[in-house]
Amino acid sequence: MNRIWVMVANSMQARCFEQGRATGTVLEPLATFWCPQGRSKGADLTADRSGHEEMGHGRGSSSYGPRLDARAKVREEFARDLAHFLNAGVAAHRCNGLVVLAAPPFLGRIKSHLSRPASKVLAAAIGRNLVDLDDATLVRRIRDEVPRATWLH
Q1: What's the pTM?
Q2: Which CATH number fits domain 4-41+69-151: 3.40.720.10, 3.40.50.2000, 3.30.420.60, 1.10.260.40?
């Protein structure tokens, strides 16, 4: 039987499920991830303010922004952590199929960090933010969103 991991995520939290081993149809909770900084304002994430350069002699001043937006950096790190979890599961043969449902901009970030073996077993990548749903509703929505062929053994 296929062991499929299903991850639902957004930039603040993620939940991973495994297709039930006993029946092959139930999704069992596997792991939960949190990134509380994902919703923080960029200014709250860094102690440094944007650069500021005095020109002197009454010529005014010049400001320049940070090289990398702090929120984007936090989101990128969270996506990398989630992908690392999925990559490790595939490498350890704990699963042989992946499904990722994530908020559309964040989905691309996760996919960009998947290893080649994990990318090969990615059965579906769907741009939906379902992470805030209760377990029963979430499982129904996952079943509705993910192509039926994914669940066949």
Answers
A1: 0.77
A2: 3.30.420.60
Pairing of strands 13-19, 122-126: unpaired
With the CA atoms of 11, 15, 19 and 20 taken in that order, what torsion angle do they form, in degrees rounded to the nearest 10? Answer: 180
Q: Which long-range contacts (CB under 8 A, 24 or more apart) does 104-111 make?
A: 105/11, 106/9, 106/10, 106/11, 106/75, 106/79, 107/9, 109/75, 109/76, 109/79, 110/7, 110/9, 110/79, 110/82, 110/83, 110/86, 111/83
38 vs 31: CA distance, rounded Å: 18
DSSP class of residue 49 equals P
What tens-digit pLDDT sequence spans the chain (153 residues)?
A: 678 999 999 999 999 999 866 555 578 899 999 998 755 554 444 444 444 444 445 555 555 555 558 888 999 999 999 999 999 999 999 999 999 999 999 999 999 999 999 999 999 999 999 999 998 898 889 888 887 767 654
At 137, list the tokens.
């509703």
